[in-house]
Amino acid sequence: MKAKVIALGNILMEDDGIGIKILENIEEELAHNHIESIIGETDAEYCISQVKDGDFIFIIDASYNGKVPGTITVASLQDYKCKKKYYTQHSYSFIDLIGVYYKSLTGFIIEIEAASISFKLGLSDNLQNKLKAISKDVLKNIFLRLNDRAGEEK
Fold first, then answer.
1. Per the structure, how many domains does the chain have?
2. What is the model's pTM?
3. Which of 21, 50, 62, 67 could join 71 via S-S bond, C-beta 3.0 to 4.6 A?
């Protein structure tokens, strides 16, 4: 089992890039702990090429669920339900493709509530001001779940 953290999002769409910014902030600490960092952005095919059955992954992405901006929500991959309806083969996301191609891939989705998603390079002031604290909390969530998993495997 290899632990990997994958950041999704578009840095040209304001807070949609929060996952990328967080992973950039924590990737050094992850590397010290032998956890691979993958900046996936919006390229689902690239993300799929970076994982293997049996990996334990964390996906960091923006969410827009009406919560307080910066709120962290963690859901297991097995329990996660995408709310989108798709009409073409090119509309599927990385999370959808995981279910199709990898049956023994496990892990968590870490959602960060966005304040604003628009055509703008960089985060909103709201999330930029919270970035350090959010990054620290995301890292804590990753280590907590990895420790829980290690305890289950013993």
1. 1
2. 0.90
3. 67
